[in-house]
Structures are given as structure tokens and as C-alpha cells.
What we know:
This protein is an alpha/beta fold. The protein folds into five domains: 1-33 and 115-149; 36-109, Signal recognition particle alu RNA binding heterodimer, srp9/1, CATH 3.30.720.210; 154-333, 3-Layer(aba) Sandwich (Rossmann fold); 338-407, Helicase, Ruva Protein, domain 3; 419-603, CATH 1.20.58.760. It contains 23 helices and 16 strands. The strands form four sheets. A six-stranded mixed sheet has the order 6-8-9-10-7-11, sandwiched between helices. Residues 168-171, 206, 208-214, 310, 344, 347, 372-373, 376 line the site of adenosine-5'-diphosphate.
Amino acid sequence: MINKLSRSRKIVLAILAVVAVIAIVALVAQGGVNRLNAIQLSDLAQFVRNGDVDKITISDDDIIIKFKSGRADASSKKELGATIGNQLRDFGVTADELARIKIEVVTPFDWRDLMMTVSLLVVPIVVIIALWYFLRQTQGANNQAINFGRSRARMFIGDRPSVTFQDVAGADEAKQELVEIVEFLKEPEKFIQLGARIPKGVLLIGSPGTGKTLLAKAVSGEAGVPFFSISGSEFVEMFVGVGASRVRDLFEQARRHSPCIIFVDEIDAVGRHRGSGLGGGHDEREQTLNQILVEMDGFDTDTNVIVVAATNRPDILDPALMRPGRFDRRVMLDRPDVKGRAAILKVHVRGKPLAADVDLAKVARSCPGFVGADIENLVNEAAILAARRNRKSISMSEFDESIERVMIGPERKSRIISPREKTITAYHEAGHAVMARMLPNCDPVHKVTIIPRGPAGGYTWTLPDEDAHYVNRAKFLDELGKALGGRAAEEIIFGDITTGASSDLQHVTEIARDMVTRYGMSELMGPMIYGQKHEMVFLGRDLGEQRDYSDTIALEIDREVQRLVNAAYSQAKQVLTEQRAVLDKIAQRLIDVETIEEEEFKAFFDRTVRAPT
Ligand code: ADP
Ligand code: MG
Ligand code: ZN
């Protein structure tokens, strides 16, 4: 900015200099008259009568006198409006004497005229130079003051595509949908000949990190066309009132580079329902959104520009965006399942040395709910860990450690734990683990540990054999039992309870309440949903719940939740009392070695326990 200020200051200085030069020239020219020897009009009359005067030059009221005798020129003044002849005659000069001198009348020198002439020449030149400067600045893209109306869409020209579909794993359905778009971008004629209406907009929908940006880039990479990318939040940034002009500019740029892709990331930032009141900045957003719609409607059939937008909140998008001819193609990117995660893992371990013991399928199984970005992060963490441990390759233990780190938090080995606390934690975790093993619908125990990690003092990690999309009532009930196992064990063994179970209790309350109000899993309350979750834009929180039931029902819901939880707690106490022997053994083992892994746990259990009924 400083640089540019001084540049425009230079221009101002240049203009000032020119003006100053003109003024000086004018003054000097005028001063030329004044520097002559000034004489009275009466003296001049005397000189004329003597025949000394050769020539008189008159300009306005100034008179310049040339003498015959070689005397220096002199100047004088005449009365304005009167002729020199009359004036000299007043001083007694005869007509004869007057006739003997040469009289010349010249237009007076006017410095304003000069200014006019000079400025006619100079000003256009100055203006041209100034314009040239400003244009040069505009091209140096980072000039905000001039440039803020232009979109700052980044352009990646893809003659050598850097991202292809190969880099996107585990999203086969989404890729399938987009193959068609790629074909269109490559050979638009094929479609146009058949009179097909080309899709204008594709909306990628998926949780953060599921690979929306990656996929959009892959489309442009596959098709080998330019990729213009801008984020919805950038439209709403900094200068109010430029969102719409940015959109216009972005689309104009894109049209010039067609065929190409415009990628609007986080379109929900501008594409919210219009006119949905609360909070500021809506006008700006509405204008921006309207402009996007106008531009998309303005595409001709032969404008080979496809707008790809991404969002993780399709529910709040303005319905006008979804109309045919706009973002009528919707591509969902789900959280990857086990197979998808394994495929994504494979993409990201490419080029990284892996130890022989690494089982990617097992790693994929251990990170349910992870999206692509999490997996990329996981692999990176594992690599860093291996480097810190001075390994030559990444082994399974680094993967395990990284997963736990991402899911729960870093290990806190340094925390000093009193022996009593350690015993309590051991029994608490053993309680969870025994419940998980005894209840038929719980996932298998993967690991039990009393090493503190993140906020947890210890944890029992269960893993499903495969990802489940639906959860049944029996499974929820067993989850309740497992979650309450920790506290039940504390009560059985120590006859007292600690604060250590508070996150378990929160988990339990949530499950039980959802069972009753969201999933219709309570016989008493029936198969219906209580309370409407609402989209509200208010003070940054966008979820609100509206009660649509009476106080009596509210009381019944609370009773039902209570009943579920209490039943699960009694069950947990009963099971653990029956399995006291194995509970003791596992707790003791935990106190000794702190961590029990899947295989050991299974073997241990099978040796000790009476066969589960
Ligand atoms: P989004 O835009 O959906 O939030 P991104 O496309 O930015 O997610 O993904 C972030 C990173 O996660 C990508 O750069 C990529 O490394 C990784 N990633 C996400 N999904 C996948 C996938 N399906 N296959 C491979 N890598 C993925
Ligand atoms: Mg993204
Ligand atoms: Zn617990």
C-alpha cells in the first residue's frame, strides 16, 4: 500500500511541477516588460518631438519604445482606452511628427492563453501517464483499493491434471455421477448434437472432510480444464456490497476460459434461505445469491461452464438453488464404510514405507466414523510417530496409537495416580469390559486400558465387526448396560461411587432420551417423535428445539427415560455381581499391566468365566 501511495503522490507532484513551470514562464514573459527603463508619457512626447523615436510597440496599455540614437529601449504606459496618437497630441506632438515614427500594435501577451495552450498539450499526456500507472497497478493483482470488486477466484489451469479420480477413493457412486460431467467437459459437441441439456450445476453434499473439494478438483483434472475456485465465505468478506460484483466477475472470467469449472466451496455461506430474518448481513448474502442465480440462468447452451458447489448443510440451502437448470445434480459423499476407509488408507500410504505387520483392513476397521481428511491425518500422525521413534517404516503400533490419539486425545503418562485411584479406575474399566462381553449385542472389546488419555482416566474400546447403519433397540439397551457397568462395578466393590463416571452418565442419558423421543423405542410413549428440532440462525447457534407436547407428556418422557436407565443399572449390578470372579481378575490384571488387548482379553475371559448364557 505504501508503495502505491507514494506512486500516486509522484503523479501529483509531476502535475504540480508542470503547473509551476508554466507559471514561471508566464511571470518571466510578463516581467520582460517591466525590466525596461520606464519613462513618463510626457517624456515620450518630448522624444517624439525631438525625432529621437524610431518605433513604438503597443500592447494593451504597455508601450515599448525603440530609439534611433541607439539609446536603450524604454517602456511606458498609456491610459487604457485612449489611442496613443490622441495622448501624444495632448502632449503637443504634431501629426507630422507622429507620422515620422513607426507604430505597431501587438496583441498583448496573456499568460492565461499560454496556460491554455500548454495545458491542452500537457494535460492529456499527464492523464495518459496516470492511467498507465493505474492500469499497471490493477494488473499487479494485489491492489485491494482498485481490485476489490474483482473476484479473487484462484485459477488452476489443468493441462497436466494434478488430481484425478485415482486420488479419490471409496466414493464410487459419487465418481460415477461425475464421470458424465467429465465427458461433457471433454466433448461438449457430442451432447449438444443430440440436443441434450447440459447440466449447469452440481452440488456436492457431504460432511466436512469427505473429499468434496478433492472431487471437484479431480473432475477438472480428469477433463483437463481450468478450475476456478472461490469459497462462499469469501463473498461475504471485508467489503460490503461487492459480493454480487465478484460473482459477475468470476463468471465472466470463467466464460472467457470455457470449457471450465467454477467451484463454489461452502455455498451455504451465501446460499441460505433468503429472507430468513435473524442476524446481520442478509442483504449482502441475498444479493450475492441472486447474482449467482442470474449468472447461471444466463448461461447459453453452448457456454461450457459447469458450476460445482459444495456444502455440508444441504438442509439450509435456498430451494431456488436446487431448481432444474441450476444445481439440479446432487452428489452425496457419505462417510466411508470399512471398505471405503481401507481404500482411502491405500491412497494415503502410497509412497510411505510400511512395516510387514501393518494390516490396513484392520486399521480401517478400528476407525469407524473417520472421513477422508481424518484418515489422511491419521496416516500422517503415524508417520510422524514412526520418525520420532526412529523407525525405518511405519508399523501397526503407530497406527493404533494415532487412532487413539485422534479419537480420545493424547496419552497422559505423566499424570501421577494414587494406588487407590488406580484400583478404582481398574474396576471401573473392568466393569465396562465385562458388561461388553456378557451382553449379546455389544461390540467386541478391542482394548481396555487405565492409562489416562485426553480427558478420560481410562477407557474400554469396543469395535464393531462391520459398520452398522441401523441400530436396534436391543443394542441400545445393551449399550446402556455397558456404559453403566463402570459405575456399577464401583458400587459393588467399594460400596461408594466417584465422579469418574460422569461422561458415562451423560452418554447414557442421551441414548435413553433419544430412544424415547427420537426413535419411538419406548412401548409406553409409542412410535412417535417428541419435539421438533429447528434450524435457527441465532447468536451463532443454529439448532433449537421446540416442544410440541404437553407438560404431562414431558413428565411421562422423563419417567420413561428414568425407567430405562434404572433398569439398565440394575441389570449391570446383577451381571457384575454374578461375574465377580472375572471382574476381580481383570481389574487385577489392569493394575499390573495397565492395558489388555483384544486377544488377551478374549482368552482371559474364556478361561475364567462360566459360559455366557
Ligand atoms: P471437504 O472439501 O469435503 O471438506 P476435502 O476435499 O478438502 O474435504 O478433503 C480433505 C483431504 O482429505 C483431501 O485433501 C484428501 O487428502 C483427503 N480425502 C478426503 N476424502 C478423500 C477420499 N475419498 N480419498 C482420498 N483422500 C481423501
Ligand atoms: Mg472443502
Ligand atoms: Zn466409564
